[in-house]
From TrEMBL:
Record's protein name: Fungal protein
Membrane-crossing segments per the record: none
Highest taxon in the source lineage: Eukaryota
Length: 297
């Protein structure tokens, strides 16, 4: 299987962008940057029509990335993250709380990653790959080299070993800021895995927010991790989505049990634009221990 998983509030118990912001120690500037983004985003969102399908929702999100783009430009123009040392970033990683059970999930997966039966990727809009890597390094028995991270990153001056204030792609073609960006990168991961293998992968995507919705549609198995109620309520409002809760009695996912999986569209001119008209099944779960059961019971 090919696992692609979101980081903030899926693997972690809380959003970690605020942890990075605290490390920069510029509270007044951060308040201005955060408020500016929120005002632009809410002004855009308040003018949206009420949508009844996930496909129309994803199509609309393609036009909504301007707020994220403008926000990132402000963060860089203010050099908000300039001057952070590697030790400061490592301290951020040490302060992050993982969700209960994720450590055991990844530990159980390690033997399959070592023999290349499975792959595990993290796809995140986070701004520091180092923070993600060092958060995982805290888990006993984990070989971080077997986990591929796709995210944004804080550029580091090779001479001073301090961050420059610029944000750059990390194992991605461009910066990852929106649902559209995530879906594009997810499809690139799937394509690369398929090219390197003689047999098709079952693709599993796990995430918690609206930026993950496009990936749910494209994955063989899309799982909404129930970190907040809003994402579930949004998906429940769509007529082309069926939510199916995973609990301890749920039958385990199996490559041979194709009847419980929905197929992945293989070719699209724009990967994040949903062209399929069939009902999309998205699974829901709120515990990593349950996910471990349904994959390795």
């Amino acid at each position: 299987m090919l696992f692609v998983v979101d980081f903030d509030e899926t693997i972690t118990a809380h959003d970690t962008i605020s942890c990075l912001a605290n490390a920069a120690n510029k509270p007044d500037v951060w308040k201005f940057l955060a408020n500016s983004y929120w005002e632009e985003y809410m002004a855009w969102k308040s003018g949206l029509p009420k949508l009844t399908t996930l496909s129309s929702h994803l199509n609309l999100l393609q036009a909504g990335g301007f707020a994220e783009t403008a926000s990132l430009q402000r963060v860089q123009s203010y050099k908000f993250f300039q001057g952070l040392s590697m030790e400061q970033l490592d301290a951020v990683a040490s302060s992050i709380t993982l969700r209960d059970g994720f450590d055991k999930f990844l530990q159980s997966l390690m033997p399959r990653l070592r023999d290349r039966s499975d792959e595990f990727h993290i796809l995140s809009i986070n701004w520091s790959s180092r923070v993600i890597q060092n958060t995982l390094r805290r888990i006993p028995g984990i070989d971080v080299g077997l986990v591929t991270i796709h995210s944004n990153d804080l550029e580091v001056d090779p001479t001073t070993r301090l961050t420059t204030g610029n944000i750059v792609p990390y194992h991605t073609t461009t910066l990852v800021m929106t649902a559209d960006d995530k879906t594009r990168e997810f499809m690139a991961i799937v394509q690369q895995a398929s090219s390197a293998s003689s047999h098709p992968h079952t693709t599993v995507y796990i995430g918690d927010s609206s930026t993950d919705f496009g990936c749910f549609v494209q994955a063989t198995i899309g799982i909404l991790f129930l970190a907040n109620e809003q994402s579930k309520l949004t998906l429940e409002s769509f007529t082309d989505v069926t939510l199916l809760n995973i609990d301890p009695s749920f039958p385990n996912f199996n490559l041979n049990e194709s009847s419980q999986l929905h197929p992945i569209p293989r070719s699209q001119s724009r990967p994040s634009k949903v062209l399929n008209t069939f009902n999309t099944t998205i699974y829901t779960c709120d515990q990593w221990s349950i996910l471990a059961q349904v994959f390795w019971r």
